[in-house]
Design goal:
- The protein has 298 residues and is α/β, with parallel strands linked by helices.
- Helices cover 38% and strands 22% of the residues.
- Helix 1 crosses helix 2, helix 1 packs across helix 3 and helix 1 packs across helix 4.
- It is elongated.
């Protein structure tokens, strides 16, 4: 039986345009021009003999036919992608898009990506560092690295490593912080958008009698660690994120050893893509790299 099918590329253009209700945003996602999206959709409309969009001044809306067609096209494309990913014996290759928080990406993942490329030169890695909820596979993300406690719904999640907490500062300041009491005279650096910071460390260590609420506040871990490395105070070091700075001597651990946190780094994928050879290769490589982060810093 011969299938009567429209051009596959035209369906991809229509799905993206229908999802964004914008030729421009669809073009940016698919790395083509808005004109290419518009002409592709027009070609599909001509093939079908029905309009899929109404086009107004800077406004795009689905027609009744387009609204009925879009979920069917999306489902068919998802099935094709899934079937392709699961072809037995398929070797890793092509593009792998990874969503990762900026701090983990900048301070841990990017310095090591060269080793991944050496091992899997046929896989092109694209990093997405926007902090947003990812909808697999619609957002074009293959795998995400997330910090948290797990329990996300509708996805496959795998704990990569549990975070560990230890105070860190510039080496020049470390000599003056020999006991917990010395923290009363130091500037504490806080990160406001993490679930565990100084209070969690103090509770785990059973520390009392120190005001851990005072000090300077930052909206991400990267800034707090940078200020600490420049002698601006004592930050809560989060391993493995602070691992390289400690190993290089930019940061010194004080009042160790590290204590475990309730949070960790997780590999999160859509159910349909977790068996992809590219995802499997990336997962295995991540685990091998993180093995060295299990040991406590000296």
């Amino acid at each position: 039986m011969a299938y009567r099918l429209p051009p596959l590329n035209a369906l991809r253009l229509f799905e993206a345009a229908g999802r964004h209700l914008s030729f421009k945003q669809a073009a940016e996602e698919l790395n083509v021009t808005p004109s290419a999206v518009s002409h592709g959709v027009q070609g599909l409309e001509g093939w079908l003999g029905v309009a899929l969009f109404t086009r107004g001044h800077r406004q795009l809306a689905l027609t009744e036919a387009g609204a009925a067609y879009l979920p069917q096209v999306r489902s068919a494309l998802a099935q094709l992608a899934s079937a392709t990913d699961l072809v037995p014996g398929r070797v890793p290759g092509g593009r792998l898009t990874v969503s990762v928080a900026p701090t983990f990406g900048l301070r841990w993942l990017i310095p090591r990506l060269g080793r991944f490329h050496e091992r899997y030169s046929e896989i092109e890695v694209t990093l997405d560092t926007t902090q947003r909820n990812v909808e697999f596979p619609r957002d074009g993300i293959d795998v995400a690295i997330r910090m948290g406690k797990g329990g996300w719904t509708g996805v496959s999640e795998e704990l990569l490593i549990t975070e560990r907490l230890v105070p860190v500062c510039a080496p020049a300041l470390a000599g003056g912080i020999q006991t917990v009491a010395d923290l009363a005279h130091a500037t504490l650096l806080h990160v406001v958008n993490v679930s565990e910071d100084w209070a969690a460390w103090a509770a785990e260590r059973g520390v009392e009698g120190v005001d851990f609420g005072r000090g300077q506040r930052f909206d991400n871990v990267h800034l707090a660690l940078e200020v600490a490395a420049r002698g601006g105070g004592v930050a809560m070091g989060r391993l493995p994120v602070a691992q390289d700075d400690i190993a290089s001597g930019r940061l010194a651990c004080v009042l160790g050893p590290p204590v475990p946190a309730a949070t960790g780094y997780w590999l999160v994928t859509g159910e349909a893509s977790k068996a992809r050879p590219e995802v499997a290769a990336f997962r295995a490589w991540l685990r091998s790299e993180l093995e060295g982060a299990v040991q406590d810093p000296a």
